[in-house]
Each structure stands twice: as structure tokens, then as C-alpha cells.
Design a protein that fits this description.
Elements (H helix, E strand, L loop, with lengths): L1 E6 L2 E12 L2 E12 L16 H6 L9 E4 L1 H6 L1 H4 L8 E3 H10 L2 H12 L6 E3 L17 H19 L6 E5 L2 H7 L6 E5 H8 L6 H14 L18 H10 L2 E8 L7 E7 L6 E7 H5 L7 E6 L35 E9 L4 E5 L3 H11 L2 E6 L7 E4 L9 E9 L8 E10 L3 H11 L9 H6 L13 H4 L3 E2 L6 E5 L8 E7 L5 E8 L10 H9 L3 E2 L4 E2 L4 H7 L7 E11 L5 E12 L2 E4 H8 L4 H4 L11 H31 L10 E5 L7 E6 L4 H24 L5 E4 L9 H9 L9 H10 L7 H13 L4 E4 L28 H14 L11 H36 L4 H4 E10 L2 E6 L4 E6 L6 E6 L2 E6 L1 E4 L3 E5 L7 E4 L3 E9 L7 E8 L6 H4 L12 H7 L1 H4 L2 E5 L2 E5 L18 E4 L5
Parallel strand pairs: 4-7, 5-6, 7-8, 11-13, 16-18, 19-26, 20-27, 28-44
Antiparallel strand pairs: 1-2, 2-3, 9-10, 9-12, 10-11, 12-13, 14-15, 14-17, 15-16, 17-18, 20-21, 21-22, 22-25, 23-24, 25-26, 28-29, 30-31, 32-33, 32-40, 33-34, 35-36, 37-38, 38-39, 40-41, 42-43, 43-44
Helix pairs in contact: 4-5, 13-26, 20-21, 21-25, 21-29, 22-24
Length: 1057
């Protein structure tokens, strides 16, 4: 090897290498260039390393007490601890990272890179293999680990000297030989054990030592873990080359594994695109053997079985049968023969933290005797198999929910192997159950960091924040020229939209939608922006919320409060007297909202209530004298009347263009004032026309903004796509409608809406409700996308009947809206830096992240609602007037029926047949279980018993009486179950039809309730002795209404704050 100094910062190293080629020895020279100006990324550096370029790459903390360099063994075995948000200032050595990629694998290597790329962690990678002072040539006679240790120590010494000893450098390792060799070599460079480091520097970091012990045990016993089953029933995965070759040729198929929650041990599905038709279809993966160690959500490669082995899916009801899949495929009952396949490879593991618990005490003792320190835990999510963990703390886990992670799943192991992370709390405790929901859906609830809060403007009671004079000249000032007001649910704090309507001199009208200018405060790549991007959305649970933005922004500076100057981004339309659009204007504005109204108050004004009746609900009027107050009230009333007229016209035109219309049943929980989480009542919420008016204005704004940004940025605009439902997913709807003599046309969204409007049984209005429920279940999910990743025809939004649609109206609660605001401002402002916009590839990747965060928020909300439903029925378990209700049959299964309970908006399974051969027979003594069987047809299920004198037949849309009970499950969430009381309804017609059936089409109101800002905004409300928390969340089209138990929910509770 030779070395050549080219200049003070560049060294060339030449190494002669001999290799054999076609039997001959060939000699060649490999050149490597080493630099002296590799960035240190430290803000205390005096050598000019912190430049704008270096800062974009990443930097170490400004106020750090030390920097820590993890040795190779720490990166391999304790990376999970390095991921903790509290531990910052980590320097990863390039040579160690490269070795991790070679020895451990790409997944582990990417996890390390994700720590470095997260600006909130303030960690960096130092390129020791490119620096002339830290490069180490791999000489013969030296082991690779020895070279790694030497490279790590040399990097630490370089940092110490480069920073002139201003900050201590700590190397952490669990190798005692390394500590003994290097701990006293250089003053200012400390080499200590990782455990010692955690004890000394992070004594208050909760449960970190427990996690350390767990990870250390895994590292020490990884080679010893064997199967308890004793047989090797799983197949080897194909090589990476074989998998990619099979995918390219079309022999294999790729997709995400979805385990059927209702039959987790036997059924899983993978959605794939068939090359022949470019249509999406499902492949059935039957049994654990064919699943071949793949876990729910893994990206897998599938090999199809011969057609002779294809079969239909299982239709047997299980104890946890529900309808709560994101896409809905698992829940659609079909006897259609499906392709069957097996997993031959896993492209990407999507393992995460899992909530789990021990089996009951007896099972635990048996397992403990067999395996010593290794025990099986049962995951909270029944789609995940049991996990074997190695721990000495099992005695502390009794009756606790814990968090575990999966580390591996070897071919000869019956279960995956994992480790203990932390304890959540007692099983059944409300806070523990909420924490379990958050962990299962990977929802961040940590406090906003100090650095993030320091970015925000300062505002106090004595010195409140004010708009800047320099901003006034950049914006259209609407404070004196326009009557601006907001209409929100009672108690709303995060007001992100306001409206204005103004009559023009020629009789035309100007409509304005004014949205909080969040981007003024949230700059790209700021800590606030990075945190908001990571969270994706504000998460609303049944009794609480977790904000995407810090409270100073969400509840104050960005909230369009009444009588307060605020920055906004506006869309304003000018219509002629015939309501034909003349022009549209986009731009930054300044507003001062004159009135902060509630929906109910606005509707009361429209319904003709007088000024005297409304003074108490519109406090802004009280500051005026009596004469002026009358004028202001009439002005507000006229504006609301004009706004309502505009909303009706917008809705009519949208429906004429093919939009669907769905109504949703909104349910409200009220909590006992003496106990915050004890559900007192469940009741329906009144639907008001003003809801639709505000919704239509928001849809109109979202459409025009989507149109604008997609025209200016045809390849990198963020839109909202809602594909039409698959024809096979509408088959059950058609069959059910045919039972009542109705024909459902599905060739377009408009024909579907018209068909549902006409499918009304005057004798039973529940029929139409059930049909709309089935239509909702068949709908696809709306998703964000980058326009450069989809073809033009895929831009269409099926539910709203619009060729362009985006989310612009709720930037306080959705990160997608922040991105759309940046796109819009870049499109309309010449001075806006368009170079900072995301490329199509980056934007599409970010859209996928936001879609995933949306789904997680929806599912977490849904499970929290179910939790409080369980609380309600637990409290009233002995009250027959509440727990006995009318159910309506809407589907059949092999061993029972599915029923919908209109009173509570819930649905689920009702068993008629048991495995022991007994059937449920209604006698004059009640329901008795006796020997028999079920005869099933497409329209009915008949209970047949030799000991009973006649056959009992259940048909679609039959009304019967059921008891709602709570089915407790120690490892999994408690759920509602239904027991048959009578094969007929015990409710009188007068009770059933006390409310008139809705005459309006229901197919787009559910769209509105899940898309538009107002219908998706949960808030807190005050009602005399009760404080209510209203929730009508919106994250994605039709998603919440996949199960009637997750309808837009208004929840009232007594808050502890």
C-alpha cells in the first residue's frame, strides 16, 4: 500500500491487489481518496464544520453535556434503547454501520439510519472511512472486530481533539476487553459499559434498565432458543434472487398480509394485482403452515396453489366475529371460490411494539416449568401469534399488560421470539387500556420537545401576540370590509375555518372560505414541521385527544377565535345574480372573526328565533348598544340566509354531477359527572341543515384548491383519491335488496344513490338503513396521493362526484392540509420558493405515511369507542330495559346470523349453532339449546331440531329480540356479544316508528361526515353539570362507518382538567 499527499485536505491511498482471472493471476491497483474536511456536525466546533449544507445533513445538540459513540455490539444488540427520544447526541461510526449491514442485515441497518435522519434525535454519522485521520487499513492478522473497536476509539479521539476538549466523548460497549484496553488511553475520552452509562446519565428514564436487561438476555441466549413444539413445520424462504425473478416473471405475487381477526389461526389474505386484468383481487392463505412465519402487515411473496386446491373462505361465526377491517375484505361474506396460496418469502417485516399479557396463572406456571426463564405471552391483537420472551421478571407481569417486541422467528420454532420492553399497567384499568390502544396503533403521545416550543412565538397575558405590520402589506385585509364568522360544535377551541358572504352591487354574491394560515408558523423542516409530519393527524379518542400541533398554535395563534386578528389563507368566489361563477381568487388574508357561533345557534337564527332569545348564545352582540345590536343581528341573519341558499345550490349541482349522498347516525355518550369514565347514557344527535351548509362550502373550497394546485403542479400536487367500489363487493347489497324486491344499480355513483333512495319499505324504514350500511361497507377507502404517481382518470373522487379533490380546510389537525397550503401559496405567489416543494417520489412516500397515520387514528378511535360502549353495558348489565333491544338480520353465516341493533348503532354475530351439535330454539320457556342442525339458503336460515315440533326460519330483515352482553377477555379487549331472546321483536310499531324515516338519500352525508372539516371535528363542550366531549371525526372517506359502532360519535364526559 502506498500513500500520496495531494494537498493539505486530500490523501490518495493506493493498494495493489492480486486476483485470478481465467486461471491467470491479474494485478490491479485500487485507489481510495481520504479527506481532511469531513464534517463533525458539532455546534461547538471552531473549524467551520457547521455550514448550511452540514446542518441539512444533521447536527449534534447545541446544549449537550457529552457526546456518546456506541460500539458495534451496542448498535447490534441495544439499538432499541438508542431509539428512545430522550437519548440524543449519538455519533454513529460509519465503519460500524457498514458492518451492521453485512452481519445483521438491511432491516437493522435502516433502523439505525432512521435514528440519524430524525432531526429531533440530533444524531449524526461520522464518515471515519473517508477521513485521513480516522481511516484504518484492514491489515492481515487483525480481526474485523478488533479493527472496528480501533476505528471507534480513533473517531472518539479525533472528536476530542477536533473540539479541543470542550465536550466529553463517551464510548459505550458491553465488551469488558474493549473497556479494559481503551478506558485509560486518552484523557477526555471515556470508555464505559452501556449499563453504567444508563445508570449514571439516565437514572430517571423509566424502565430503561428493565429494557436493557431484556435485550441483554436476548443477546446472550439467542443461539439457545429452540422450539417447544419439537417439529420443523415451516419451509425455508426462497432466496432474494429467486423471489425477484418470480415476481418479474409473474409466477409469484407480492402484497401485504392481512390476517382475518375473526379467524386468525386459519385465514389470512393478500391483495394483489392480476397482471392479466390489472384488477385487484384477494388470495386466501389458509393455516399457519402456509403463512410460513409471516405476521400481520408483513410484505410477503405468494406462490399460488393448483386450482384444484382453491376454495371459498370460512363463514363460521367465532366469539370475536366483528366487521372492522380497514379495507373490509375480511368481512364480506362470499361463497365465491378464491385463489389459495402460500408464503414463500418475506420482503419486509413490519414488526412493531406489541401489547401482550401472560396467560392465566395456571397456564403461566405450566409454561414456566417447561421453559425456565422463557415464557409465552398472548398479544392484545389476536391477529398476532403468541410470542416467546426470555425474562426474569415474569412474576411482575401477573395481571399486567406489557409491551414486547419480536426479534426473530426461526424455521424450527413454533412461535416467534421476542423481548420485554415495559409494563403498561393493570389489566382492565382505563388508563392501561387507553395506553394499549395507543401502543397498538403506534400513536405518539409524548410531550412536545423543549426545542420545538422554543421555535414558537412568545405570547403572554401581559404581552399577547399581535400580527406583524410587515405582514399587512403582503395580505388582503378583510377586517373591515367583510363580515367573517365561524360555525362550530359547542366548545370548539381549534377553529381552523371561517366563512364570509357579501352581496355585490350588481346583485351578485361573494362567498369566502378563510382557513388558518398554519404555514406562517410552521416552516418546512422546522422541529414543529417534523413533529407534525411524524404525527400526521390529531388523534381523537372517545374521551381525549392528542394534538398534531402544540397547544399554542392549535388552540391560540392559529385558531380563528372571535374578535381576534388572525392570519388566514382564503378562497373567494364571485357569482353573478344567477349564481354563475365569474371568478375565483386565492391568497393570504387577515381576518377578524366577528362571531364564533355554534351550529345550534346558527340554526336557531335561521329558524326565526329573535334577538332577545339569541343574546345569551352569541356573546359578541352584547358589546353593542340596543340600536346597533338590532342592526348587527339582522346583518348576521341575512348572511346566514344567503349562506344557506348558496349551500343548497352547491349541493344540488354536486349531486347532479354524480355525487353519492349518505346520512350517518351520530351517537353521543354522556358520562356520569361524579365519575369521569362511567358512561351514563347513549343517545342520538339531531342533524341540522347548517351542518350541510358549512360542509358544502368546505367541499367547494377543497375542490377549487385541488384544481388549482394540480394545474400548476401536474406531477407533484397532493390530492385525495376515492376509487369506485369493486363490483363483487356490492353483490351482498344487491342480494339483500332483491329480497325486498328492490333493484340496486351500481354502474355509477349516481345510479347507486338513486337506487338507494328508491329502496324504501314503507312498513319497515330499517330496511333502507341496512341497505345503506351495506353500501357503506362496500366502499373503498379514500387516500392521499401525488399527482405524478396516478393517471389522470384516477384523480376522480367517487363519493363526492368531483374530478379533483384535496384537503385544504383543516391544517391545524391534518398534515396533508399543511402540504396543500404550501402548494397553493407556491402556485399563486411569485416570491414563494417552489424549489422547496417535494418531488413526486418524496411526496408520494409522504402520502403513504399520512395514509397510514390516518388509518391508525381511525382504528384507535374506533377501539376507544368500543371500550366505552363496553363500559356502558357493564354498568347497566342488570337493566333489561337497556340491555334487551331489537335486532335486524342483515347477513347469514354457517353457524348463525349477523344482526344490526338500530337503538345503539351496533352490529355483530348471533350464534344459532354450537360445535357440540346443539341449536338455539325459541320455546315458550325462552331460548333452549338442543340437538339439531341449520339449513341455510341465500335468503334464510332454518333451525331444525328433532325434539321440537316445528322449524324456526330466520330471513333477511327479520326483527328479533336480543340481549347485549359484555364478553370479557383477559388478553384481548372486552367486546359486546348478542344472545337470542326471542325470534320476534318485542318492540311495538309505535315505539319503532316514533321517528320518521329519513327521506333524503344517505349515500354522501356519510362522505361529508368523514371528509369535511365540520363533520370530522371533535371538540369539548360544556352543558351545565356535565362537560361533554363531542366527537365526529373525519380522517378518511367511509372508513369510520365500516362498522356502525364507529359512526361519527359525539362524546360527553366530565373532564379532569
Amino acid at each position: 500500500m502506498s500513500c500520496c499527499l495531494l494537498d493539505s485536505n486530500l490523501v490518495k491511498i493506493e493498494k495493489r491487489i492480486n486476483a485470478k482471472l481465467r486461471g491467470k493471476t491479474v494485478s490491479f491497483v485500487r485507489e481510495k481518496y481520504l479527506r481532511g474536511d469531513v464534517y463533525c456536525h458539532s455546534p461547538v466546533c471552531l473549524h467551520g464544520c457547521i455550514t448550511e449544507t452540514a446542518t441539512r445533513i444533521g447536527h449534534l445538540p447545541t446544549q449537550a453535556t457529552h457526546y456518546v459513540i456506541p460500539a458495534f455490539d451496542i448498535i447490534c444488540n441495544f439499538l432499541e434503547i438508542l431509539e428512545l427520544p430522550e437519548i440524543k447526541g449519538i455519533i454513529f461510526v460509519q465503519s460500524a454501520l457498514n458492518r451492521v449491514l453485512i452481519d445483521i442485515g438491511k432491516r437493522h441497518y435502516k433502523k439505525a439510519l432512521s435514528i440519524i435522519r430524525d432531526p429531533r434525535k440530533e444524531c449524526v454519522a461520522f464518515l471515519d472511512e473517508l477521513h485521513k485521520d480516522t481511516y484504518i487499513e484492514k491489515e492481515n492478522g487483525h480481526g474485523s472486530k478488533e479493527i472496528l473497536h480501533c476505528a471507534t476509539f480513533r473517531t472518539a479521539v479525533w472528536y476530542h481533539e477536533h473540539l479541543q476538549g470542550k465536550i466529553p466523548i463517551i464510548i459505550v460497549t458491553e465488551d469488558p476487553q474493549v473497556i479494559e484496553k481503551y478506558e485509560n488511553q486518552t484523557l477526555g475520552v471515556f470508555v464505559i459499559s452501556f449499563r453504567n452509562y444508563l445508570e449514571e446519565f439516565w437514572p430517571d428514564l423509566e424502565q430503561v434498565l428493565d429494557l436493557f436487561d431484556s435485550l441483554q438476555t436476548i443477546a446472550q441466549t439467542a443461539s439457545e432458543i429452540k422450539t417447544s413444539g419439537g417439529t420443523s413445520e415451516y419451509s425455508n424462504y426462497l432466496s432474494s434472487e429467486g423471489l425477484h425473478a418470480g415476481l418479474k416473471s409473474g409466477r409469484y405475487f407480492q402484497g401485504q398480509l392481512r390476517v382475518n381477526k375473526n379467524n386468525s389461526g386459519k385465514e389470512a389474505f393478500v391483495s394483489v394485482y392480476w397482471l392479466s386484468s390489472r384488477e385487484c383481487g384477494d388470495i386466501l392463505i389458509e393455516g399457519m403452515k402456509n403463512r410460513n412465519r409471516a405476521i400481520h402487515s408483513d410484505e410477503v411473496v405468494i406462490d399460488l396453489m393448483p386450482k384444484s386446491e382453491w376454495k371459498s373462505r370460512n363463514q363460521i361465526l367465532t366469539n370475536n366475529t366483528k366487521e372492522e377491517s380497514v379495507n373490509g375484505e375480511e368481512n364480506k361474506k362470499s361463497t365465491k371460490i378464491m385463489p389459495v396460496g402460500r408464503v414463500v418469502g418475506v420482503l419486509q417485516r413490519r414488526w412493531r411494539n406489541y401489547v401482550a399479557c401472560l396467560p392465566d396463572e395456571e397456564d403461566y406456571n405450566i409454561a414456566n416449568r417447561k421453559l425456565g426463564g422463557r415464557i409465552l405471552v398472548i398479544p392484545y391483537d389476536c391477529r398476532i401469534p403468541k410470542i416467546r420472551i426470555t425474562t426474569k421478571q415474569a412474576v411482575n407481569f401477573q395481571n399486567k399488560r406489557i409491551v414486547v417486541r419480536i426479534d426473530s422467528w426461526e424455521r424450527d420454532s413454533q412461535y416467534p421470539n421476542g423481548h420485554f420492553v415495559r409494563i403498561l399497567g393493570e389489566i382492565g384499568d382505563l388508563e392501561t387500556e387507553i395506553a394499549a390502544i395507543l401502543v397498538e396503533h403506534e400513536i405518539s403521545v409524548s410531550s412536545f420537545s423543549k426545542g420545538l416550543l422554543e421555535e414558537l412565538p412568545t405570547t403572554t397575558d401581559n404581552s399577547p401576540w399581535k400580527i406583524e405590520e410587515s405582514e399587512i402589506s403582503k395580505r388582503k385585509d378583510l377586517r373591515k370590509s367583510h363580515l367573517v364568522f365561524s360555525i362550530d360544535p359547542v366548545g370548539c377551541e381549534d377553529v381552523d375555518d371561517t366563512l364570509s358572504v357579501k352581496e355585490l352591487p350588481d346583485g351578485g354574491v361573494e362567498l369566502g372560505v378563510h382557513i388558518a394560515d398554519v404555514t406562517h408558523f410552521v416552516k418546512p423542516l422546522s422541529l414543529t414541521d417534523i413533529e407534525a409530519r411524524s404525527r400526521g393527524v390529531t388523534v381523537y379518542l372517545a374521551d381525549r385527544r392528542y394534538d398534531m400541533l402544540p397547544p399554542l398554535l392549535s388552540g391560540d395563534l392559529c385558531s380563528l377565535l372571535g374578535q381576534t386578528d388572525r392570519y388566514t389563507v382564503s378562497v373567494m368566489w364571485e357569482f353573478d345574480p344567477h349564481f354563475e361563477l365569474r371568478k375565483v381568487w386565492f391568497g393570504r388574508t387577515i381576518i377578524c372573526s366577528a362571531y364564533k357561533m355554534f351550529y345550534e345557534a346558527a340554526q336557531d337564527i335561521l329558524n326565526g328565533k329573535s334577538l332577545e332569545e339569541m343574546q345569551s348564545t352569541i356573546p359578541e352582540l352584547k358589546k353593542f348598544s340596543n340600536t346597533v345590536m338590532v342592526e348587527k343581528f339582522e346583518e348576521l341573519k341575512e348572511a346566514l340566509i344567503k349562506l344557506t341558499a348558496i349551500g343548497r345550490i352547491l349541493k344540488k349541482r354536486r349531486l347532479q354531477s354524480g355525487a353519492l349522498e349518505l346520512d350517518s347516525l351520530e351517537v353521543q355518550f354522556e358520562f356520569d359527572s361524579s365519575y369521569t369514565h362511567q358512561v351514563e347514557t347513549v343517545k342520538s344527535k339531531e342533524h341540522l341543515e347548517v351542518h350541510e351548509t358549512v360542509a358544502e362550502c368546505m367541499i367547494f373550497a377543497n375542490f377549487w384548491v385541488g384544481k388549482k394546485i394540480s394545474e400548476v403542479f401536474p406531477h407533484q400536487a397532493l390530492l385525495r383519491h376515492h376509487p369506485p367500489p369493486r363490483s363483487e363487493d356490492l353483490e351482498e347489497l344487491k342480494l339483500c335488496a332483491a329480497v325486498k324486491g328492490f333493484q340496486i344499480l351500481t354502474n355509477s355513483n349516481r345510479s347507486l344513490a338513486v337506487s338507494l333512495d328508491e329502496a324504501v319499505d314503507p312498513k319497515d324504514p330499517i330496511v333502507n338503513k341496512v341497505l345503506r350500511m351495506l353500501a357503506t361497507r362496500a366502499m373503498s377507502q379514500a387516500r392521499y396521493f401525488s399527482t405524478g404517481s396516478y393517471s389522470l382518470e384516477d384523480f376522480y373522487h367517487y363519493g363526492l362526484g368531483l374530478n379533483r379533490y384535496t384537503h385544504f380546510t383543516s391544517p391545524i389537525r391534518r398534515y396533508a392540509d399543511i402540504l396543500v397550503h404550501r402548494l397553493l401559496l407556491s402556485a399563486i405567489e411569485e416570491h414563494y420558493n417552489s424549489n422547496k416543494l417535494l418531488s413526486n417520489t418524496d411526496l408520494q412516500e409522504l402520502c403513504e405515511h399520512i395514509n397510514e397515520r390516518n388509518r391508525a387514528a381511525q382504528k384507535a378511535q374506533k377501539i376507544s369507542v368500543e371500550l366505552f360502549q363496553v363500559l356502558y353495558f357493564q354498568k347497566n348489565a342488570l337493566d333489561d330495559t337497556l340491555c334487551i333491544a331489537e335486532g335486524v338480520i342483515y347477513s347469514f353465516c354457517t353457524n348463525g346470523i349477523l344482526v344490526y341493533i338500530p337503538k345503539f348503532g351496533v352490529k355483530g354475530p348471533l350464534h344459532l349453532y354450537k360445535k357440540d351439535g346443539q341449536v338455539a330454539v325459541v320455546t315458550n320457556k325462552g331460548v333452549e339449546w338442543m340437538a339439531g342442525h341449520l339449513e341455510r339458503s341465500q335468503k334464510a336460515v332454518t333451525v331444525v331440531s328433532p325434539t321440537f315440533t316445528y322449524r324456526q326460519t330466520y330471513q333477511l330483515f327479520d326483527h328479533l329480540t336480543v340481549r347485549i352482553e359484555v364478553q370479557s377477555a383477559r388478553a384481548h379487549p372486552a367486546t359486546l356479544s348478542f344472545q337470542l331472546i326471542d325470534c320476534k321483536s318485542q318492540i311495538s310499531n309505535m315505539e319503532r316508528y316514533s321517528e320518521k324515516p329519513c327521506q333524503n338519500s344517505q349515500l354522501v352525508e356519510e362522505v361529508i361526515s368523514s371528509i369535511v372539516v365540520k363533520e370530522e371535528k371533535p371538540v369539548e363542550q360544556q352543558v351545565k353539570s356535565q362537560e361533554t366531549y363531542k366527537q365526529t371525526s373525519l380522517y378518511s372517506l367511509f372508513q369510520k362507518l365500516k362498522d356502525m359502532s364507529l359512526q361519527p360519535v359525539n362524546i360527553s364526559c366530565t373532564s379532569s382538567e
